[in-house]
């Protein structure tokens, strides 16, 4: 196999298949492959809709290999690559899919090589990335978890992030404030507790300061998650990342979900066959005589107080069920 054959195998991969031979070749011949990956990154940065489908696949796998190989010379290229709007249906989301939120923390952590200042600058920059900025925040906290930076350095970063997020109110910065509060609680940075709780009391126009879909006010005010596994401890950030192993596990999970969906659909099909036209139970719904013959006079129904269990057997109080 040569490089062109490896790229052809990677670019033409179908569905949940993995181009294992192609990936092994480019890892073994990294100095030959990386210039091709860098060219694709530069092309995407210049015009994020200019890549062919095959090129997008190569960009996807190549970028994940940066995390596996901990290729720190690519840090600046990675930060440029992900410095753009990354919400649903954006070009970067089209390339990376679930990896955009699930694996970018691992990518940033493994290529940063202790240079948390570069990640901090990326986080406060004015580009529109939201999920990837949150991933960078997690990567910095994981550097703290691993002992690469101390609490003084981490607190300096957090202070800078809060200042920038508050200076430019937006839905993105509301999301990032919430993500940051989550991490501060998880890592017990209690020196920020009063500041975050005070922020909970503020409101910016019609929108709250926090994105409550990401992290709720009540969770901030509680400020308690002692004993929760940290990012590296829980495996959310993988310090020994392997592309094939991780994506194979994803494929297995997808297969299990598909099997559950099939079981659910089979149950629905069985129900349809019984209740649909010509089905054994169709008359229960569609035969007026059957309905009338099986009706129960209202006067014969058991009575219940508002706070008693509902006679229908739902387990709810009467006032919360059939009385409504």
Strand count:
2
Helical run tally:
18
Helix content: 55-70%
Largest sheet: 2 strands, antiparallel
What is the strand content?
under 5%
Strand order of the largest sheet: 1-2
Distance between the termini: 71 Å
Oligomer: single chain
Give structural notes.
The protein has 324 residues and is mainly α. It has one domain. It has 18 helices and two strands. The protein has helices at residues 3-11, 20-28, 30-46, 53-69, 75-81, 91-96, 99-102, 104-112, 116-124, 131-145, 151-167, 171-186, 193-200, 217-222, 231-234, 243-275, 282-286, 288-293; strands at 203-204, 207-208. A two-stranded antiparallel ribbon has the order 1-2. A hairpin with a 2-residue loop joins β1 (203-204) and β2 (207-208). The longest helix is centred in the C-terminal third of the chain and has 33 residues, at 243-275. It is globular, with a radius of gyration of 27 Å. The termini are far apart. Mean pLDDT is 85; it is low at 298-302 and 314-320. It comes from Colwellia psychrerythraea (Vibrio psychroerythus). It holds the Pfam family DUF1186. This is SEC-C motif domain protein. InterPro entries: DUF1186, SEC_C_motif.
């Amino acid at each position: 196999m040569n490089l062109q054959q490896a790229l052809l195998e990677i670019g033409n991969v179908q569905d949940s298949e993995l181009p294992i031979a192609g990936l092994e070749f480019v890892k073994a011949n990294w100095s030959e492959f990386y210039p091709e990956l860098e060219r694709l990154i530069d092309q995407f940065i210049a015009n994020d809709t200019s890549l062919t489908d095959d090129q997008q696949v190569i960009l996807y796998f190549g970028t994940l290999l940066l995390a596996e190989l901990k290729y720190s010379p690519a840090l600046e290229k990675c930060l440029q690559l992900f410095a753009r709007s990354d919400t649903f249906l954006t070009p970067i989301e089209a390339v990376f899919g679930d990896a955009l939120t699930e694996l970018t923390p691992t990518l940033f952590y493994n290529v940063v090589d202790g240079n948390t200042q570069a990640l901090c600058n990326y986080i406060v920059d004015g580009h529109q990335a939201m999920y990837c900025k949150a991933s960078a925040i997690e990567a910095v906290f994981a550097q703290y978890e691993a002992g690469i930076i101390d609490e003084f350095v981490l607190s300096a970063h957090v202070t800078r992030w809060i200042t920038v997020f508050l200076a430019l109110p937006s839905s993105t910065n509301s999301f990032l404030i919430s993500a940051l509060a989550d991490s501060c609680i998880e890592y017990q940075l209690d020196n920020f507790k009063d500041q975050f709780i005070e922020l909970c009391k503020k409101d910016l126009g019609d929108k709250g300061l926090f994105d409550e879909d990401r992290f709720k006010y009540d969770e901030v005010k509680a400020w308690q998650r002692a004993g929760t596994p940290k990012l590296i401890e829980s495996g959310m950030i993988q310090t020994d990342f392997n592309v094939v192993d991780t994506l194979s596990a994803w494929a297995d999970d997808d297969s299990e979900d598909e099997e559950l969906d099939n079981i659910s659909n089979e149950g629905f099909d069985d129900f349809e066959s019984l209740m649909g036209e010509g089905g054994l139970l169709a008359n229960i719904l569609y035969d007026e005589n059957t309905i009338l013959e099986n009706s129960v006079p209202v006067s014969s129904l058991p009575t219940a107080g508002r706070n008693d269990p509902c006679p229908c057997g739902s387990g709810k109080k009467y006032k919360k069920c059939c009385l409504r």
